[in-house]
Amino acid sequence: MLNIMSNANIIDGRKTRDALLPELTEKIKTLLKPPTLAIIQVGNRDDSNSFIKAKKSFAAKIGVLERHIQLLESVSTAELVKVVQECNAEQNIQGIIVQLPLPIGIDRDSVIDAIDPRKDADGLTAKNVKAWLEGRGDATMPATARGIKELLAFNGIDLFGKKVTIIGRSMLVGKPIAMMCLNENATVTVCHSKSENLANETKSADIIISAAGKSRLIGKDHVKAGQIVIDVGISRDVEGKLTGDVDFDVVKDVVAAISPVPGGVGPMTVLGLFQNLVDLYKPTTVFSW
Amino acid sequence: MLNIMSNANIIDGRKTRDALLPELTEKIKTLLKPPTLAIIQVGNRDDSNSFIKAKKSFAAKIGVLERHIQLLESVSTAELVKVVQECNAEQNIQGIIVQLPLPIGIDRDSVIDAIDPRKDADGLTAKNVKAWLEGRGDATMPATARGIKELLAFNGIDLFGKKVTIIGRSMLVGKPIAMMCLNENATVTVCHSKSENLANETKSADIIISAAGKSRLIGKDHVKAGQIVIDVGISRDVEGKLTGDVDFDVVKDVVAAISPVPGGVGPMTVLGLFQNLVDLYKPTTVFSW
């Protein structure tokens, strides 16, 4: 079932990303101009800084330009919407992302829905949400869902007809992953903090995708032989160590294959964002340069 | 678990609707003017005619006005959008629905998304889709999902923590029902035509909601004692008899409670539409009359 990108039973996100890079960079070279991603950040959160750093360094690697617009924590919703609109109007920008979370007091929906859906690299505007909920081929899907789709496909894991149990129901991760799997013809179960018998739901699945953000939520009792486990969670345990939702060391010996944290979904999410950006680069905009 | 509106183990949609009517009609009486629903129909399909007839008769019963706009099958997308925009602009219209399906050749998305989200009584515009996907309290939910929510709540069936298996993944029915159940804190499994082991998925549920539109898809082997079965399907069997997705006569003797077809979800869907309409009636529009 798994191909060469899996070392033993590890589904390696970095190796998969690297294997998909040549195709993406080749595609970028065929464009008239390198695409530009606008990254709008409010404030100076450590986690946001580190995500943005990863995006910038990946952009540089594949020949994509980025414009990082960092605004003071005190910015108003109206001012932020204005910045988004300026990026909409700027012909040299093909994709826009607003780094989340935004400070409390900012109306997130107004800011996100100000993004021109044709430049919505994160797939979070209402128009794109409806499109990916419908499973339209031209929908821009949130980067994590896209990254997981590519990770599974590249590693020879087919979703068609499979039973997938997803843990988590957020708008950024759980719900788009659920819709992606459903649109790929999987039978999809969504669990969350109010679910009873989580272990029943995970054990009866062919594929488990955990996006709860709870360190080591999924242990030996939640899994069985033959399963595929994709870990989307990322948190720090009491000792400050970076962990996923899955108790990797014990689960890896039970299941058929598992993606680690770090080095699993994370690198694929960054790839997914830039795949979105390249897809948004429409030839029709070429003529206005 | 079930209250007086269930006769034996039948979850009666007509009785539930009738029991909820006084509250709705009282609410309508407190409005400065009766609300008006615009029903836009293209062509003259028998099924559409019969659905519209049911809506009109219900409107008359509860003191709601309707404006039925019937256009020729040959209408263009642009002309249809213009009609929608006229309804948006008309202050005496509080809700708009476009009767589906539309003829092939009409761009459905353009027509639906032309509806002012504040008048979107069917909850199908992109803005509303995103809102109900997020589980926002102010979202207008498609009428069938709302009707089922009310049917379950009134009959004392709580979704919290329950395992719900939904059959069907359409944008009008399956997906909104799934999101409604998820937002009510159920553990939700979505099955469809590509699902393997449908019976496994239905048998492991506390509540089965079938929206496949396949006559008698769910039989005795799909259910077990103690379950709640909600039948959303409506089709005709080979003898022309109106049936649901569930083989009612055999399933009703196994499960704890079941909603029939007709007389189950159908009447609740009509109620849900008019509950949506009344919710859309905003006091702020009062002053422009």
Radius of gyration of chain A: 19 Å
Helix and strand sequence of chain A: EEHEHEHEHHHEHEHEEEEHEH
Strand content of chain A: 15-25%
How many domains of chain A? The number is: 2
CATH architectural name of the largest domain in chain A: 3-Layer(aba) Sandwich
Give the helix/strand class of chain A.
alpha/beta
Low-confidence stretches of chain A: 1-7, 284-289
On the 0-100 scale, what is the average pLDDT of chain A?
93
Q: How does this model look, in words?
A:
2 copies of one chain form a homodimer. Chain A folds into 2 domains: 31-124, 3-Layer(aba) Sandwich (Rossmann fold); 143-266, Rossmann fold. The longest helix of chain A has 17 residues, at 13-29. Chain A starts with 5 loop residues before the first strand and ends in a 9-residue tail after the last helix. By secondary structure, the first copy, chain A, is an alpha/beta fold. The first copy, chain A, has helices at residues 13-29, 46-62, 77-89, 108-112, 126-134, 143-154, 174-183, 198-203, 248-251, 265-280; strands at 6-7, 10-11, 36-42, 65-71, 95-98, 163-167, 187-191, 207-210, 228-231, 235-236, 242-243, 257-258. In chain A, the strands form 4 sheets. A 5-stranded parallel β-sheet of chain A has the order 7-6-8-9-12. Chain A is globular and about 50 Å long. In chain A, strand 10 and strand 11 (242-243) form a beta hairpin. Chain A has 10 helices and 12 strands. In chain A, helix 1 (13-29) packs parallel to helix 10 and helix 6 crosses helix 10. The A-B interface holds A 113, 126-127, 129-130, 133-134, 160-161, 163, 169, 171, 175, 178-179, 182, 185, 187-192, 194-197, 200-201, 204 and B 113, 126-127, 129-130, 133-134, 160-161, 163, 169, 171, 175, 178, 182, 185, 187-192, 194-197, 200-201, 204. Strand 7 (187-191) of chain A pairs antiparallel with strand 7 (187-191) of chain B.
